[in-house]
Write a structure and sequence with these properties.
By secondary structure, the chain is α+β, with helices and mostly antiparallel strands. It folds into 2 domains: 174 residues, Ribosomal Protein S5, domain 2 (2-Layer Sandwich); 164 residues, Alpha-Beta Plaits, CATH 3.30.70. The protein contains 9 helices and 12 strands. Strands 1, 2, 3, 4, 5, 6, 7 and 12 form an 8-stranded mixed sheet that branches. Strands 9-10-8-11 form a 4-stranded antiparallel sheet. The protein is globular, with a radius of gyration of 20 Å.
Length: 355
C-alpha cells in the first residue's frame, strides 16, 4: 500500500550559527514542504524520482552504497538516509519514492533538511521501524553530512520534525529540549528571497564554522555555549555565538511575556552581529533588511547559513502585505535584483499524511 509523508521547511527566526555550538535557537516550521509517496517493494531496491529534478535514483539497500557518488546528485540524500539507517540496523525492504516540493531550493528555508527528514520517515516505515523524534533528526542530520559534505547542526531537521502549528520553537541544541511558544496573532512572519542563490557546500560558511571552533579551542572550551561574554570580547566569531545565544533567550522571554516591542531590535542586533562578527552576510541581504524595516517591519535578519538566500522579518499582521510590497519595490531599485516574498505561518512538524 502506498503511504505518503510530508516534512516542512523551516525559518530560523533567531539563533544563527549557534546550533553546532550546542546553543539555543528559535525557529518554526513553515507552510511549505516536501512530500513523498512511498510504495513498498520486497527486492531491497530503492527507486526515487522527483517532480522538480530530472533522472531516477536507484540503488540496492542490500549492498554498500557510497551516497556521495550517487547520480543524479539530487538523490544522494536518499542513499545517505538508507546508509545511516543501515548503520542503525534498520534496512528497508525497498521502496518506490516519488517526491514533490513546494519549498524553494537555495533559499535558506531548509529544503535539504525537509528532504532528508521525509526520506527518513518513508524508509524507516518501509523497514517497519518507528523512530523517536530525536533519532529521526540525527539520522537526517548525518545523512546531510554524508550526501552533501555539510557539517550542519541539528536545528533544521529537529524543527521540521517537532514543530507545532501556531507556535515557534525554542530548541536547546545540546539537550534537544523544546519549548513551544505561541506566536501572537498580531504578528506576521515575512520571508523574502534576495535573488542571490545560496548553497552551503563549498561556501565560506564552512570556513566560518571552522573559525568559530578554532576560537573555542583558543578559549579552552569544547563549544562556544560554554564561553563567557568576557572571554570572547576580542574574538569576533566567538563573540557572535555567545551574544547570539543571549539574544535568543531574550527573544524567547519576550514572547513568553507578550513583549512584542523587544522582538524587532533583537532581530536587527542578530543581523548586525551576523554581518560584522560572523561575516556571513552579503550586501544584498543587508539592503533587504534595510528595505523591510523602512517599509514598516519591526525587525529583520538574514536566515539560514547566509551568503545569499532569504531574510526573515516580523511585521504587524494588519500591514504585512503592504510591508512586503513596499520592501520588494525598494529592493528592486536599490539592489537591481528580483526578490521573491512569502507570508509564512508556523506549521505542524513532519509525519504521515492520512489518505
Amino acid at each position: 500500500m502506498t503511504r505518503s509523508f510530508r516534512a516542512p521547511g523551516r525559518v530560523n527566526l533567531i539563533g544563527g550559527q549557534v546550533d553546532y555550538h550546542e546553543g539555543f535557537v528559535v525557529s518554526m516550521a513553515i507552510d511549505r514542504d516536501v512530500v513523498v509517496r512511498a510504495r513498498p517493494r520486497n527486492d531491497g531496491v530503492v527507486s526515487a524520482r522527483s517532480a522538480e529534478f530530472a533522472g531516477t535514483v536507484s540503488f540496492d539497500t542490500r549492498a554498500p552504497v557510497e551516497a556521495a557518488r550517487v547520480e543524479p546528485a539530487w538523490g544522494r540524500p536518499v542513499a545517505a538516509v538508507a546508509q545511516v539507517l543501515a548503520e542503525r540496523g534498520i534496512r528497508p525492504a525497498g521502496a518506490d519514492l516519488a517526491y514533490e516540493s513546494s519549498l524553494p531550493t537555495g533559499a535558506g528555508l531548509s529544503s535539504s533538511a525537509a528532504f532528508e527528514v521525509v526520506t527518513t520517515l518513508a524508509l524507516a516505515d518501509a523497514a517497519g521501524a518507528a523512530l523517536a523524534t530525536s533519532d529521526a533528526a540525527r539520522v537526517a542530520q548525518r545523512a546531510e553530512l554524508l550526501a552533501l559534505g555539510v557539517p550542519c547542526g541539528i536545528q533544521d531537521q529537529f524543527t521540521s520534525l517537532a514543530a507545532h502549528a501556531g507556535h515557534v520553537m525554542l530548541l536547546d541544541c545540546r539537550t534537544l529540549a523544546v519549548e513551544h511558544l505561541a506566536l501572537p496573532d498580531t504578528l506576521a512572519v515575512l520571508v523574502v528571497h534576495s535573488g542571490v542563490a545560496r548553497t552551503l557546500e563549498g561556501s565560506p560558511w564552512v570556513a566560518r564554522r571552522a573559525e568559530s571552533f578554532e576560537a573555542a579551542k583558543r578559549l579552552g572550551v569544547r563549544v562556544l555555549r560554554d564561553a563567557t561574554a568576557t572571554q570572547v570580547e576580542h574574538e569576533p566569531r566567538a563573540r557572535h555565538v555567545v551574544n547570539e545565544i543571549a539574544r535568543v533567550l531574550a527573544f524567547a522571554d519576550a514572547l513568553r511575556h507578550g513583549d512584542v516591542d523587544s522582538l524587532g531590535p533583537l532581530l536587527l542586533a542578530s543581523h548586525a552581529s551576523s554581518r560584522d562578527d560572523m561575516q556571513v552576510s552579503i550586501p544584498e541581504l543587508d539592503t533587504l533588511v534595510e528595505c523591510l524595516v523602512d517599509a514598516g517591519a519591526l525587525g529583520a535578519r538574514l536566515t539560514g547559513g547566509g551568503f545569499g538566500g532569504c531574510v526573515v522579518a516580523l511585521a504587524p499582521a494588519v500591514s504585512a502585505h503592504a510591508v512586503l510590497d513596499r520592501a520588494c519595490a525598494a529592493y528592486r531599485v536599490r539592489a537591481g535584483r528580483e526578490p521573491t516574498a512569502w507570508l509564512v505561518r508556523p506549521s505542524q512538524g513532519a509525519g504521515a499524511l492520512v489518505s
